[in-house]
Amino acid sequence: MHLTVLDKENYQSSRLHRSEGNHTDGSQVSSWSVDNLDTELQNVNNFLSKCNVYISPVKFQLQTNISNIADSSQRYMKRKAGETVEAVLNVITPGQAKELLEMVVQERAVEASAVDNANCELLKIVTSLYSLTQDNTIKCQLLSLMSKTMSKSELLNCIPGLTTYKIDQARLYASQSESGFTPTVKDSYKKTKMDPKKLEHATSFFFNPAFHQIVSYGIRPIKLESGTVIEIPDVVRTACHSTLISMYESFCRETQYQPLSRATLFKILKVCAASKRSSLKGLDNISAEGHDQLIKLISVLEENGMAIEQSKNLKAELNGYKVYLKNEYKLQLAKASSCADHCRSWSLSDSKDKSFQTNCDHTHDLFCEKCDSWKKVVREIRLYIDEEIEYEELQCDLKLENELLITQVEAWKSHNLRIVNQDECRIETLDNLKPNQILLVLDCAMKFLPIFCREKQSDWFRPERN
Predict the structure, then answer these.
(1) Residue ranges making up the domain that contains 208
(2) Which stretches of sequence are listed as region Disordered (predicted)?
(3) 251 with 321, same domain?
(4) 319-356: buried (b, 16+ CB within 10 Å) or exposed (e) per residue?
(5) What letter would DSSP give residue 446?
(6) Strands 275-276 and 212-223
(7) 82: Cβ contacts below 8 Å, ≥ 6 apart
């Protein structure tokens, strides 16, 4: 802060001249034209003269915008303001004006910083809410709050994806209504953009029990159209979405039915959510073991000299058969079919016990290409072991191991057949239930054996159990 120091003798003579002039009848006009100044300016000059005799009086009051005056006038105003403030502070704390001024300025700076930090945090919260909400009305309200104190460029830099049109709409909204009022709740309604019959046709195929399996743990909430939420046991979808849709499209081509678009079918499966498992371990151990043995079958022969080209062809056949057993085979099974591999009545009949046999009223004159491919692979493997393996002991071991692996794969196929047949029985039982009847499923292996034996799941089949 700068103080103007005048010549002491000249200043005292000037004050003496003014003092004498004030006692005379005709007030003499000083060199600063004191008589022409306003009363407020005179009071300020009187106060300054009493505080410090070396401070010159303020010559004039500014009647225009300070930013429009000349640079010399601006410097003059700044100098006089500094002198006035220091004079006042010297009255309050004599000799310590600078220290007091620093304290005041520092406190004001801290307060301003706190306000800026609070405003910054508030701005972050509002912008976060703006980004998270999906309601356009709420977005407009939040933006109207910020548009009052921020420019367009600041808003555009602060909120990604914001446009000047949205800012204009928010400012228009703020000028026409009170910011922050709660919008009226709109009645939600749903538009049906697809054929209900085609939708029912697709869902009836997708919900086929052949592609789903209920697990004994976990629940899945389902929200109905009425808003009610019900809980059902968790369901595992054993086929991926693309495979399921490809099979459905193939089924529609065979029946000459026009399905929904492929993109719509993917959306339906996304809404009808189910758990996905890449491994069947813990869900269906028979299927899991059969799945593993298919590839192991060829690996055993590769270790004993099978040509790479031959093993590659056999693996391709087995991979195709694996996909077939996992997905399509269950769909092609029927109670009565002209294909022996797909006829449940013929396949489930016991060839040795007549009590468990069913006579088919049709002939089995059709053949399944996928089922025959498996039989072809089995014949080729057996032929390779008989002709290419020279050592008798190794040949005997490979035959035993090969027959064991083939048996496990056949068990997987039989297991899928029983699953479809038992599910048909369950559906038929549910359809014929009377109002006073219920269907109670006793899952002995999963529920009651652990309770009865008082042991955890990993110990269910311990060898030492009596």
Answers:
(1) 196-276
(2) 1-30
(3) no
(4) eebbebbbbbbbbbbeeebebbbbbbbbbeeeeeeeee
(5) I
(6) unpaired
(7) 1, 2, 3
